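R.M. (postdoc): so does anyone remember the format we settled on? I'll just put the structure tokens first.
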């Protein structure tokens, strides 16, 4: 180890200053392990909440659940608070806990290599650093997926991805098209319909939508949360329990009767709120609710029935100078086109080049798809841990809780090194293979494997998300099974 790091005070390189990177820095500091730097490629922290600024953005995981456990927020405005408020929360927590100033911005890591027992990292600006542990907090739904639509360059109007909203482009009084019907698109449609002249939604696949009421918290409620933190803790515990038991846990058992209750509620939402029977059938999915990530919205059906809104279900043929030409030959003239077409969900730490022991490249290891033991560790990549890596519980959980649990787990492995049990720790190949086989077997029984197409599926059609209950995840995170690790 080099002079700046010792066995008991190793050096950590944190990549990414989103929710998970900020949490890591706070927790390391709290543990007295202050030998770390957070590297962030952008100019501000916040990750997904910095990048997604589209109209209507909110988090559909309840705010008192989608908060750090150590920094509950009495001031959440709504049950499901808007994106800008969540971004402000992360900025505030990072400042209050003294880690905002420890972030190096504009530092894009291009390469990470394990050489001579340490991680050497290189940045796009040519600079380098090295450390003993890498914590990759690089996010999941991060790299926009652009659709392969002919003529994207031919359009005379403005076109951008939902996660790269161009606020310089006025939409008021304009003809705006939205491609996609995922959670982003549905929030956007409700967020812009009042403002635009015409709203055209290009739907390839209909979505089940569960109605969520998003009541604001009253001043009195917020004052009570501030004055009586126990009340806020109790609320968080109740919300967490209801969300986990009533939703997240049931998705991993396609036979769960609770899935039928969700299906019934989505069906009633559609039946009761869409008047025109023809439109209703065009909005009715032909697969089971929650097979795709469930969309939550109180006002989408209202928005799509406005006089200035149109649902287009014909396939997109191409983009032309003045708009979208659909397969039936119709031209839908537009000023702005928003591609709410999702993310390249298999990238994780890439395009960063990660080189493990003996020159093994992560790109090669992952050439048939990404995987990680407990969504954190990959064989031959010692002292390299991902937060919310491949196969994490995602989409239906609070990623904050996932990252906090993973961090606490990783620290137990770090302790092994600090206490002299070895210098390098990573999952063994056998444990990785066993985990992956069990994961794929369990995935067959989840709702995601019941016959729809979604971003949960890998190229072989196997769901990649954590296929067990969240209770099991919590249990697995409580203590590492050391026999699954290789310690050198
Ligand atoms: P998404 O769920 O992957 O949806 C992408 C949409 O684009 C789908 O409707 C897809 O159609 C459509 N699409 C893709 N390529 C297309 C093409 N070439 N032509 C026509 N349509 C095309 O993406 P997302 O809405 O950004 O959401 C991703 C995830 O982010 C969500 O599932 C959720 O986990 C998370 N998210 C969360 C929140 C929140 O409030 N917590 C908000 C937004 C997003 P098909 O269905 O036919 O493939």
């Amino acid at each position: 180890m080099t002079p700046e790091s010792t066995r008991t005070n190793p050096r950590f390189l944190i990549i990414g200053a989103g929710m998970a990177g900020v949490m890591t820095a706070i927790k390391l500091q709290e543990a007295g392990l202050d030998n770390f730097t957070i590297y962030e490629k952008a100019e501000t922290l916040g990750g997904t909440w910095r990048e997604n600024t589209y109209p209507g953005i909110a988090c559909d995981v309840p705010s008192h659940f989608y908060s750090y456990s150590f920094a509950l927020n009495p001031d959440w405005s709504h049950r499901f608070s808007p994106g800008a408020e969540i971004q402000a929360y992360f900025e505030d927590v990072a400042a209050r806990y003294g880690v905002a100033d420890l972030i190096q911005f504009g530092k894009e890591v291009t390469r990470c290599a394990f050489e001579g027992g340490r991680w050497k990292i290189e940045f796009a600006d040519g600079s380098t650093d090295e450390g003993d542990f890498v914590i990759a907090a690089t996010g999941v739904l991060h790299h926009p997926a652009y659709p392969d639509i002919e003529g994207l360059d031919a359009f005379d109007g403005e076109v951008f991805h939902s996660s790269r909203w161009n606020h310089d482009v006025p939409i008021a009084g304009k003809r705006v098209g939205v491609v996609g019907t995922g959670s982003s698109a549905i929030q956007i449609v409700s967020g812009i319909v009042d403002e635009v002249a015409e709203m055209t939604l290009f739907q390839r696949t209909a979505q089940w939508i569960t109605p969520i009421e998003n009541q604001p918290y009253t001043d009195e409620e917020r004052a009570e949360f501030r004055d009586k933190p126990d009340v806020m803790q109790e609320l968080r515990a109740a919300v967490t329990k209801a969300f986990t038991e009533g939703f997240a846990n049931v998705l991993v058992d396609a036979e769960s009767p609770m899935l039928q209750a969700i299906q019934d509620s989505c069906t009633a939402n559609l039946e009761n709120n869409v008047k025109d029977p023809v439109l209703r059938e065009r909005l009715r999915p032909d697969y089971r609710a929650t097979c795709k990530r469930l969309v939550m919205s109180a006002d989408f059906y209202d928005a799509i029935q406005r006089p200035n809104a149109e649902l287009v279900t014909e396939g997109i043929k191409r983009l032309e100078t003045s708009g979208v030409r659909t397969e039936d030959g119709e031209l839908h003239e537009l000023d702005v086109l928003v591609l709410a077409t999702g993310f390249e969900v298999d990238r994780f730490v890439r395009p960063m080049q990660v080189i493990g022991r003996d020159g093994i490249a992560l790109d090669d290891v992952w050439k048939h798809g990404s995987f990680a033991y407990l969504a954190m560790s990959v064989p031959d990549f010692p002292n390299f841990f991902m937060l919310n890596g491949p196969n994490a519980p995602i989409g239906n959980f609070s990623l904050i809780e996932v990252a906090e649990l993973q961090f606490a787990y990783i620290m137990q492995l770090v302790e092994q090194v600090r206490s002299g049990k070895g210098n390098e720790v990573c999952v063994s190949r056998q444990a990785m293979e066993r985990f992956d086989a069990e994961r794929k077997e369990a995935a067959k029984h989840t709702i995601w494997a019941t016959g729809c197409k979604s971003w949960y599926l890998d190229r072989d059609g196997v769901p990649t998300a954590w296929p067990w209950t969240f209770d099991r995840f919590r249990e697995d995170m409580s203590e590492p099974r050391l026999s699954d690790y290789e310690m050198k």
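R.M.: ...and that's the designed sequence above, right after the tokens. Also worth knowing: The first strand starts at residue 12 and ends at 15. The mean pLDDT is 96.
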